[in-house]
């Protein structure tokens, strides 16, 4: 297990705003000078890499007030058919660049992917399997809203190829659910998990959020008791970032309803203790998994990876994102589609694609990305591996960065020796702070306010 030492003084000292490092550089650095020629060049650069597909489904029936995702609230099911018409055009155009690639992973995110009915979900899966070379053993996962699915839909999802599910529960407390406009049926959630296990889904994940209005330590422990009883293979416990100036829905959450920072820290501490005592390993940041789960096994082997979907086992795969706002990672290139649905439709109709912006990474970006990824996924870094890959002398190249780490070394967050860096149990919760010392972009202080707080 990834051991954690809870040091409240250090946590309070380092609890500043910072990136979550689902990418480096972050999406804030994307620019509109990136074009489709850049995308095509990136797609051709590593022709033997496997491919991971991400499809964004933006539709939701109801607005969750905490949500920071790209979503469209509608009750009109026919809008999905229109969306799939345009998505098919993009799939056909993009798949031509990856004819010889093997797809090892597919993920549907949102929004609410289970907004799609049986015919619509089968249509989309058929598109993907028709135009891409999907391996028989591919990981195929979907995000579920337990309010927007029936039990027999799980059977259908399993039948068309899904073998992993992720369920957004957030909190079981009825008062909290009402305040964030996400009231759920607890009994039905248990029935869903029972059916998922009967159907043989390879992995189940549950998402929770701490820091929501009216949450207390006791109320969140009540939620955790229920979740442990559900017995998912992995769990994500996210810190709610209250940024109403960026996400309009959050205006409905009043500041005075939010738990105090000290309460949030108490919730996090007891969550870590509770999950550890319940057999879950701390993977990193906000992820927990059972020891026999693929994430825990990959971390033990030093093969864990992180991208815009969070932690993943797909270390060597490029990521192709399709749909409104979707992001792609192709080797040393990032690309993002238009975020507005109307603009997405216009661009796909005209060009077959909806590319809006992106970034070509420099060699320095690539080096720093690998350093940050190594630290955030494995809590350690071997200088020799970086030196061999990039023909640099680590201590010379990162002299300024290593100097920035010295106060953190003195505080016991990590150890630095002649061969590399090892993050201590005291530093694992503060891994983002450690990574920020290697982040050239985050040194521009003003941009840090675009991010959530570390804890």
UniProtKB/TrEMBL annotation:
It catalyses: coproporphyrinogen III + 2 S-adenosyl-L-methionine = protoporphyrinogen IX + 2 5'-deoxyadenosine + 2 L-methionine + 2 CO2. It is found in: Cytoplasm. It comes from the Bacteria. Signal peptide: none annotated. Transmembrane segments: none annotated. One of its GO terms (cellular component) is cytoplasm. PROSITE patterns: RADICAL_SAM. Keywords: 4Fe-4S, Cytoplasm, Iron, Iron-sulfur, Metal-binding, Oxidoreductase, Porphyrin biosynthesis, S-adenosyl-L-methionine. Its EC number is 1.3.98.3. The keyword Signal does not apply. InterPro entries: Aldolase_TIM, Coprogen_oxidase_HemN, Coproporphyrinogen-III_oxidase, Elp3/MiaA/NifB-like_rSAM, HemN_C, rSAM, rSAM_sf. Its cofactor is [4Fe-4S] cluster. [4Fe-4S] cluster binds at residues 60, 64, 67. Binds 1 [4Fe-4S] cluster. The cluster is coordinated with 3 cysteines and an exchangeable S-adenosyl-L-methionine. Pathway: Porphyrin-containing compound metabolism; protoporphyrin-IX biosynthesis; protoporphyrinogen-IX from coproporphyrinogen-III (AdoMet route): step 1/1. Belongs to the anaerobic coproporphyrinogen-III oxidase family. Involved in the heme biosynthesis. Catalyzes the anaerobic oxidative decarboxylation of propionate groups of rings A and B of coproporphyrinogen III to yield the vinyl groups in protoporphyrinogen IX. This is Coproporphyrinogen-III oxidase.
């Amino acid at each position: 297990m990834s051991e954690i030492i809870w040091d409240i003084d250090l946590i309070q000292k380092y609890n500043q705003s910072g990136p979550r490092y689902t990418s480096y550089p972050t999406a804030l650095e994307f620019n509109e000078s990136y074009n489709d020629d850049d995308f095509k060049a990136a797609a051709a650069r590593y022709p033997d890499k496997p491919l991971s597909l991400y499809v964004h489904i933006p539709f939701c029936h109801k607005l969750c007030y905490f949500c920071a995702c790209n979503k469209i609230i509608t009750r009109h099911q026919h809008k999905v058919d229109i969306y799939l018409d345009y998505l098919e055009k993009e799939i056909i155009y993009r798949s031509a660049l990856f004819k010889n690639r093997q797809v090892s992973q597919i993920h549907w995110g949102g929004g609410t992917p289970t907004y799609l009915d049986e015919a619509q979900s089968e249509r989309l899966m058929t598109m993907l399997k028709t135009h891409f070379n999907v391996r028989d053993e591919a990981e195929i996962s979907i995000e579920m809203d337990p309010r927007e699915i029936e039990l027999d839909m799980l059977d259908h999802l399993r039948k068309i190829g899904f073998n992993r599910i992720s369920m957004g529960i957030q909190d079981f407390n009825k008062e909290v659910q009402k305040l964030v406009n996400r009231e759920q049926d607890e009994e039905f959630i248990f029935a869903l998990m029972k059916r998922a296990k009967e159907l043989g889904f390879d992995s189940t994940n549950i998402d929770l959020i701490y820091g929501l209005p009216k949450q207390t330590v006791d109320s969140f422990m009540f939620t955790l008791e229920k979740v442990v009883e559900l017995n998912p293979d992995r769990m994500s416990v996210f810190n709610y970032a209250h940024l109403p100036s960026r996400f309009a829905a959050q205006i409905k959450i009043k500041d005075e309803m939010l738990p105090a920072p000290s309460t949030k820290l108490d919730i996090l501490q007891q969550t870590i203790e509770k999950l550890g005592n319940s057999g879950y390993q701390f993977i990193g940041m906000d992820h927990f998994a059972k020891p026999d789960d693929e994430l825990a096994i990959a971390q033990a082997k030093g093969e864990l990876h992180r991208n815009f979907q969070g932690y993943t086992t797909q270390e060597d795969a490029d990521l192709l994102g399709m749909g409104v706002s979707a992001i792609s990672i192709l080797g040393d290139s990032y690309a993002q589609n238009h975020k507005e649905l109307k603009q997405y439709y216009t661009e796909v109709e005209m060009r077959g694609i909806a590319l809006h912006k992106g970034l070509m990474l420099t060699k320095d970006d690539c080096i720093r990305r690998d350093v940050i990824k190594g630290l955030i996924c494995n809590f350690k870094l071997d200088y020799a591996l970086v030196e061999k890959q990039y023909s640099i002398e680590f201590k010379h190249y990162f002299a300024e960065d290593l100097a920035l780490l010295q106060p953190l070394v003195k505080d016991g967050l990590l150890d630095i020796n002649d061969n590399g860096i090892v993050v201590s149990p005291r530093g694992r919760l503060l891994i983002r702070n450690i990574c920020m010392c290697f982040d050239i972009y985050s040194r521009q202080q003003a941009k840090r306010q675009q991010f959530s707080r570390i804890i």
